[in-house]
Amino acid sequence: MSQIISILNTLDTITLGEMDKVKLMNRMDSKYMFTMQMLPQLLDNCRAHYVVTDIGGNKCSNYETLYYDTNDYKLYTQHHAGKLNRYKIRKRTYVESAVSFLEIKFNDNKGRTTKNRIKLTGNNMDASAIAFIEKETPLKAKDLKPSVQINYTRITLVSKALTERITIDLKLTIGKDTFTRTFNNVVIAEVKQNKTNHSEFTHLMREYRIKEGAISKYCFGISNLVEEVKKNNFKEKNLRILKLNHT
Q1: For residue 112, is it within any domain?
Q2: pLDDT tens, position by position, 8-37
Q3: How many domains does the chain have?
Q4: Does residue 219 fall inside a structural domain?
C-alpha cells in the first residue's frame, strides 16, 4: 500500500468542492477487475490524464456500506434474473468524515445508473429515510432489513477534462452477521461518464488486456454469504474474483 500512496502523491489533486462539476448522479458505468500487483503501474500511467481526489490530506478513503433488501432478497433476485429496471438501497458511511447517506441506485433499461441520496443523522431509519425510500422506489420501508455489509478503500480519479470519474476500490470486505471475508488482492475499477466518450483509463484497460465486466459488490456479497439464494448466473464472475484473489 505504501507504493500506491507514493504514486498517488505524484498526481495532481482535486478537492471535493472542485469535483462537484463531475458528480455524475446520472451516468453510464463500465467496470473492470484486476489484481493489486497491476495497480501501481496503472496509476503511474494515469498521471498525465487524471487528478486524484484529496480529502483532508487523504487520497484513499474508507467506505462502509450496509445494504438493505427484503426477507426473500427481492432486490438481489431481480438482479440475478436480469431485470433491467432495478434498485439498490444502501447506507453509505464515509469513515474519515463520519458522514452517512441513505442512497438509492436505479439501473434502467437503457443501461444508465441514477443515484439519489439523503444525509442521515442517526444509525436507524427515521421518518425522512422512510419517506425517501417510499418516494423513490415501489418498496415499503417496513419490508426492508439489513442484508450485507460491504467495506472497501477507494481511490477516486477525475479526468483533467472533467468529463469522467474513475473509482478504484481495494481491500474489499464482505460481511453478514458475525462472518466476514476480505479480498486483499482484488481491485474493482469503475469508469463513470455522462455518456460513453473517449477514456484514457479504458484505453489502458485495453492495453493491459483487461476486459470490461459488470460486477455488483452487493450481489457478490449476497451470493457468497447467503446459502438459500439463486447464484448460478453469478458463478462465472464469482469464480473470477476468487481466482484474482489467489493470483
Answers
A1: no
A2: 999 999 988 787 766 655 567 889 999 999
A3: 1
A4: yes
**154 within domain boundaries:** yes
244 CB neighbour count, 10 Å cutoff? 18
Question: What is the length of the chain?
Answer: 247
Q: What are phi and psi of 9, to 5 degrees?
A: -70, -10
What pTM did the predictor assign? 0.91
Q: CB–CB of 173/166 below 8 Å?
A: no
Cell numbers that stand for 59 in this block: 487520497
Query: CA 245 to CA 247: how far, in whole Å?
Result: 6
The larger pLDDT score, comparing residue 142 to residue 24, is at 142
* Domain range enclosing 236: 2-82+148-245
Exposure on the CB side of residue 190, measured as CA atoms within 13 A: 17
Q: What value does the mean pLDDT of the chain take?
A: 91
Q: Is the pLDDT of residue 208 over 80?
A: yes
Distances (CA, A) of 240 to 51, 138, 157, 214, 246: 30, 34, 25, 12, 10
Query: Among residues 94, 60, 68, which one has the least CA distance to residue 167?
Result: 60
pLDDT band at 194 (very low <50, low <70, confident <90, very high): confident
Q: Is residue 90 part of a domain?
A: no
Grid cell digits, residue 239: 469464480
State the cell numbers at 60.
Answer: 484513499
